[in-house]
């Protein structure tokens, strides 16, 4: 067993070969050295992989899983090249292994890039954290290009290519001087071979209360930036006086998931974003638990309304809609909302209920539709699904009683059954088949994919079991909480109790998932032709 004091000295040697100024460190691991290595006392060197006598790539060593480490097209960033004893046959095997690893990694980066591009497509600089995610996207792009280039270089090697490794030792004058590093130990520090009772300052190594090594930079006895690695991942960022992650930091877990944002006492707390091959989420964390993205409501967003007969009154009392006066003036009281300036937004689109089941029609639908079109509003229709009749009959009833004209928004299926109703009709699988049937028939008639309207509870409980529906159709979610839904969607019904000039009573307010450029693209590709 290695004693702590010895381990710290070993960590110091590793930190000495690190580029401290830009925050790049080599991390101590518990893995044994590769069997290909021959011990060496050289401090600065690199290895060159040659193909038929010509330099091809540069690297520092070979990992235990038979891949090149610190593989690069230049030797500039390599501090130490291990002495390696390996046959040409094994070199060919390692190159095949490296290419396989590169393909796996680029596939992962492709998935991550898709998630990032989706986020950037529906956000802009007005949203919190946008610049931070853009910077991460640029890093991902750079890594992807580097991997593709490296794979291209390795692809030139055939089974007949003669391979060899040449090790080069640098002169001291050819490398950047190594930083002076202190090692904290029992209330003082070791630095340049001396024991000092002094405050910590500069580049140093310390051990936290759990025995984890932290390498970083101190100022006035406080670590300003550092890196900590354990079995589940690596944290890089700010620490407090007790060497606990607090402030802004980045964390890469062992499965490749990346998080950047605010920390408090080693826990995600405040704004941050997490990205993996499956999804990107950005928003507020509360003591390690993701709460969601808090929307910032401004005049730059695209707002719309959905209406039915209830906007014309209940019972015998009738209220007309004054289409020439429509302006959204309030976003409801059900949840807190971050609003810049006064709420005075134009209505950019309107959905009107047309039918329900196979026997109910909105008697105001036709007139409201004509008025909305006459006043230049983008208009669409929705059908309220009933569990009491089959989906095909409901689709045909909706088609017979609804207008579908050029420039109209895609039709919508409104699905809001209770859990009890879903079980009574046969369960979630039966409902999913009904949704597929309705959507298919209406798509065939209109030429556009309908939109599915559901609430957040339905998404959480049932939609995961119908991935084809989630994948093939745009989703419109009713969610009245403070936080934005964390699924891909086209509209978000953010309140049922909004206010709009020109309409009596409460109105459902919706926000399009994106800004003007995304909305323009939607108008170009998704409307009825």
Overall description:
The protein has 529 residues and is α+β, with helices and mostly antiparallel strands. The strands form 6 sheets. A 13-stranded mixed beta sheet has the order 10-9-8-11-12-13-14-15-16-17-18-19-30. An 8-stranded mixed barrel has the order 21-24-26-27-28-29-31-32. A hairpin with a 2-residue loop joins β13 and β14. α2 packs antiparallel against α3 and α5 runs parallel beside α7 (428-446). The longest helix has 35 residues, at 88-122. It is elongated and about 95 Å long.
Chain-wise SSE layout:
Layout: H1 4-16, E1 37-38, E2 45-51, E3 54-59, E4 61-62, E5 68-69, E6 83-84, H2 88-122, H3 130-154, E7 163-169, E8 181-185, E9 188-191, E10 194-196, E11 202-207, E12 213-219, E13 222-230, E14 233-239, E15 245-253, E16 258-264, E17 267-275, E18 280-286, E19 289-294, E20 296-297, E21 303-307, E22 327-330, E23 338-339, E24 349-356, E25 360-361, H4 365-374, E26 378-384, H5 391-400, E27 412-414, H6 419-424, H7 428-446, E28 451-455, H8 456-461, H9 467-472, E29 475-478, E30 483-484, E31 491-501, E32 507-512, H10 516-525
Parallel strand pairs: 8-11, 20-23, 21-24, 24-26, 26-27, 27-28, 28-29, 29-31
Antiparallel strand pairs: 1-6, 2-3, 2-7, 4-5, 8-9, 9-10, 11-12, 12-13, 13-14, 14-15, 15-16, 16-17, 17-18, 18-19, 19-30, 21-32, 22-31, 24-25, 31-32
């Amino acid at each position: 067993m290695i004693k702590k004091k010895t381990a710290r000295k070993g960590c110091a040697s590793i930190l000495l070969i690190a580029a401290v100024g830009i925050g790049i460190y080599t991390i101590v691991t518990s893995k044994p050295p590769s069997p290909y290595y021959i011990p060496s006392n050289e401090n600065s060197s690199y290895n060159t992989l040659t193909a038929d006598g010509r330099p091809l790539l540069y690297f520092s060593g070979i990992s235990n899983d038979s891949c090149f480490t610190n593989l690069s097209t230049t030797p500039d960033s390599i501090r130490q090249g291990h002495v390696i004893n390996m046959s040409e046959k094994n070199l060919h095997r390692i190159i095949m292994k490296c290419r396989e690893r590169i393909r796996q990694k680029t596939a992962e980066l492709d998935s991550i890039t898709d998630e990032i591009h989706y986020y950037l497509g529906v956000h802009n600089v007005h949203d919190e954290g946008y610049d931070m995610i853009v910077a991460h996207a640029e890093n991902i792009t750079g890594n992807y290009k580097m991997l593709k280039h490296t794979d291209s270089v390795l692809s030139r090697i055939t089974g007949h290519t003669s391979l060899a490794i040449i090790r080069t030792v640098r002169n001291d004058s050819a490398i950047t001087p190594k930083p002076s590093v202190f090692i904290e130990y029992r209330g003082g520090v070791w630095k340049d071979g001396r024991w000092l009772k002094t405050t910590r300052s500069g580049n140093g190594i310390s051990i936290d209360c759990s025995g984890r090594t932290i390498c970083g930079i101190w100022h006035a006895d406080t670590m300003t930036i550092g890196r900590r690695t354990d079995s589940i991942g690596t944290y890089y960022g700010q620490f407090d006086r007790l060497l606990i992650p607090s402030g802004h930091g980045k964390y890469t877990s062992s499965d490749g998931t990346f998080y950047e944002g605010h920390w408090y006492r080693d826990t995600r707390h405040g704004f941050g974003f997490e990205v993996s091959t499956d999804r990107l989420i950005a928003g507020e964390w509360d003591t390690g638990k993701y709460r969601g993205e808090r929307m910032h409501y401004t005049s730059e967003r695209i707002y719309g309304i959905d209406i039915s007969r209830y906007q014309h009154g209940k019972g015998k009392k009738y209220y007309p809609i004054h289409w020439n006066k429509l302006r959204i003036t309030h976003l409801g009281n059900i949840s807190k909302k971050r609003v810049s300036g006064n709420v005075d937004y134009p209505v950019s689109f309107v959905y009107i209920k047309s039918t329900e089941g196979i026997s109910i029609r909105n008697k105001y639908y036709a007139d409201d539709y004509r008025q909305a079109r006459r006043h230049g509003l983008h208009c669409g229709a929705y059908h309220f699904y009933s569990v009491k009749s089959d989906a095909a009959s409901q689709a045909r009833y909706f088609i017979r009683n609804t207008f579908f004209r050029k420039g109209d928004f895609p039709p919508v299926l409104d699905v809001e059954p209770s859990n009890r109703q879903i079980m009574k009709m046969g369960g979630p699988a039966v409902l999913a088949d009904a949704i597929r049937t309705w959507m298919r028939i209406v798509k065939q008639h209109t030429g556009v994919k309908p939109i599915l309207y559901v609430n957040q509870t339905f998404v959480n409980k049932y939609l995961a079991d119908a991935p084809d529906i989630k994948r093939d159709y745009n989703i419109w979610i009713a969610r009245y909480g403070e936080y934005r839904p964390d699924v891909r969607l086209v509209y978000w019904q953010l309140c049922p109790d909004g206010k709009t000039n020109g309409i009596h009573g409460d109105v459902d307010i919706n926000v399009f998932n994106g800004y003007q450029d995304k909305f323009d693209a939607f108008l170009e590709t998704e409307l009825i032709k």
